[in-house]
Design a protein that fits this description.
The chain has 218 residues and is of the alpha+beta class. The strands form 3 sheets. Strands 3-2-9-10 form a 4-stranded antiparallel β-sheet, with helices on one face. Strands 7-6-5-8 form a 4-stranded antiparallel β-sheet. The N terminus is likely disordered.
């Protein structure tokens, strides 16, 4: 019993220097479009790659291998799916500032219903939550809200203007420019709060073994 408690405590040691994320592939048009906006408006541009957080904070690197091995068979039962980043939304922070993000949806879904906007992404996150039940920090009172951060706004009153400006230049009418195939999740880590995240492991959806990922181009 003591040994089981020790192991559980080790696995529960989380850090904001680690996460599991979904990323648009770096060789896609949407990745470059996202980076063009983030380079101007996102103060975290050099620390984070374009991503949708699925589990954050997450375990220390010395627990990554066991976490990858634990998750891999569960993801083999999920099929890759397409994600469209077409609409801007925002979170307000105490009425003083705001974070602007892109809303991930699946093509041809009912966008009027939050539960059906991106069902495969929601299912993916629920699988992670079941495999790592001590990593539910993203499960707020309103439930998991997937998003891809694009900008920060110092004033809540100015956020709608910023969203309109970003939407005007965003190629939402061209699906091929704002869609990507979600075919894997990435385990990422950074060695300090001001150090860029790097991908340590990539775990595919639909089967196949996990692999060490290549460096991400910013």
């Amino acid at each position: 019993l003591f040994n089981r408690i020790v192991v559980a405590n080790i696995m529960s040691k989380k850090t904001h220097q680690s996460a599991i994320v979904l990323m648009p592939p770096a060789d896609t048009s949407v990745y470059q479009a996202v980076q063009d906006v983030r380079r101007q408006h996102d103060r975290q541009f050099h620390r984070w790659m374009p991503h949708i957080n699925l589990s954050y904070p997450f375990y220390e690197p010395d627990q990554m291998d066991s976490a990858v091995a634990k998750l891999t068979p569960h993801l083999s039962n999920l099929s890759p799916f397409r994600v469209r980043l077409a609409e801007f939304g925002h979170f307000s922070h105490g009425g003083k500032s705001a974070t602007v993000w892109l809303d991930p949806v699946e093509p041809d879904r009912d966008l009027s219903n939050n539960n059906s906007r991106c069902p495969n992404l929601m299912k993916l996150q629920s699988v992670l939550a079941s495999v790592f039940p001590d990593c539910l920090d993203l499960q707020s009172k309103g439930g998991f809200r997937p998003h891809l951060t694009m900008a920060q706004c110092a004033s809540v009153t100015a956020v709608e203007e910023l969203k309109r400006a970003l939407s005007k230049d965003w190629p939402s009418s061209e699906p091929s420019q704002v869609e990507f195939l979600a075919s894997s999740v990435e385990f990422i880590h950074r060695t300090g709060p001001d150090v860029p995240f790097v991908v340590l492991h990539s775990v595919p959806l639909g089967g196949g073994g996990a692999c060490l990922a290549q460096p991400v181009t910013r």
